[in-house]
Design a protein that fits this description.
Layout (H helix, E strand, L loop, with lengths): L1 H14 L105
Amino acid sequence: MAEIKRAKLVLILNSRKNLAGVDLGGLDLHGMDFSGANLRGVNLRGTNLEGCNFQDADLRGADLSYSYMIGANLTGANLDDTLMLNTKLRGVCLGEPDFLREDYAFEFDESFFIEEAAVA
């Protein structure tokens, strides 16, 4: 059944790239291309996002907690109000995401960490 959901998701991404508010929690979405997609408020909690491309995606208010994002590309992604508790971020390409701007306040708690992150 997860494969059916994945196939439908690919069609949506290829046609309009608007997944705002959709519940994708717990799915295996590894390697998917979310570049430029509207993912505002999306539930990606506990999702396998290994190797996904989120370049220039709008992730404002999304929940990425407990997700596996090893090797994902977040270059240019808007991460305002994104929840990332216990998210695995090893090898993530950050480029210069919005939360690194001087005018943006971003708070980390002890569960947020990046190991071996690639900054472009």
